[in-house]
Amino acid sequence: MLAAEVCLDLCLAPLDPHELYRYLGYPAHATPAPRVAERIAQAAAGALPALRPQGTYAVYRVARRTARSICLGQVTISGSVGKYLDHSDRAAVFVVTAGVEISHLAKAATADGDAFTAWVRDAAGSWAAEAAADALMLRIRRHLGEKQELTLRYSPGYCGMTIGNQQKLFRLVDAEAVGVTLMPSLLMHPLKSISGLVGLAPAEFVGRYLSPCDRCPRTGCHMRR
């Protein structure tokens, strides 16, 4: 391990309503009717105080790489991520979370029979986890060398990495430092958490893709950017 950091109070960017609409399942460029948008805004405003964005990362030198694997420390991550990080000399393993309270709020709304508010609170938690990852990338950027950039980030279950790689990632980063644990199902607790890899690579090889979706064959996915 070359470097590591635990961030217990990540600063999130302001919530963009259009980003929230995407997590609510609205198609790209679609917006809800004004009356529905107002209800969404009210439910989201009530959810924001429950967010507890935290994150941690560990930076490793890439010991070995093939098109279908990448070795960090003594751990080999398998999948297309080896190809996606093909120019990276180092990689950061990260875990971020929005905390458990937002999920509790969503469940409480469901128990009260308010499915709409539960729906919005759940989407707000998903947005916050992604925003926490964005905030953590700003911390990882401090480790970039001259003329280097961060690659896109890749997570188990997507981008050619099976969900089984979760166990390997958790061996490489202290997720419990931010209260994230791996359940037997390989889902994380709190549920509104993200784990993954990001490469540190020459800037000339970064930027060919705007998002991981550009390299994903699931063209019909409603979350596609």
Write the layout of secondary structure elements.
Elements: E1 3-7, H1 17-23, H2 34-47, E2 54-66, E3 69-72, E4 75-78, H3 81-84, E5 90-97, H4 101-111, H5 115-140, E6 148-154, H6 165-172, E7 181-182, E8 188-189, E9 193-202
Antiparallel strand pairs: 1-2, 2-3, 2-5, 3-4, 5-9, 6-9, 7-8
Features:
single chain; 225 residues; alpha+beta; seven-stranded antiparallel β-sheet; two-stranded antiparallel ribbon
Structural overview:
The protein is an alpha+beta fold and 225 residues long. Helix content is 31%, strand content 24%. It is built from six helices and nine strands. Strands 1, 2, 3, 4, 5, 6 and 9 form a seven-stranded antiparallel sheet that branches. Strands 7-8 form a two-stranded antiparallel ribbon. Helix 1 crosses helix 5 (115-140) and helix 2 packs across helix 5 (115-140). The mean pLDDT is 91.
Secondary-structure-based class equals alpha+beta
Calculate the terminal CA-CA distance, rounded to whole Å. Answer: 33 Å
Average pLDDT confidence is 91
Number of strands: 9
Radius of gyration: 18 Å
**Broad shape:** globular
Number of helices: 6
- Oligomeric state of the chains in view: single chain
Which range best describes the helical content: under 10%, 10-25%, 25-40%, 40-55%, 55-70% or over 70%?
25-40%
Strand percentage lies at: 15-25%
Detail the poorly predicted runs: none
Main β sheet profile: 7 strands, antiparallel
N to C succession of SSEs = EHHEEEHEHHEHEEE
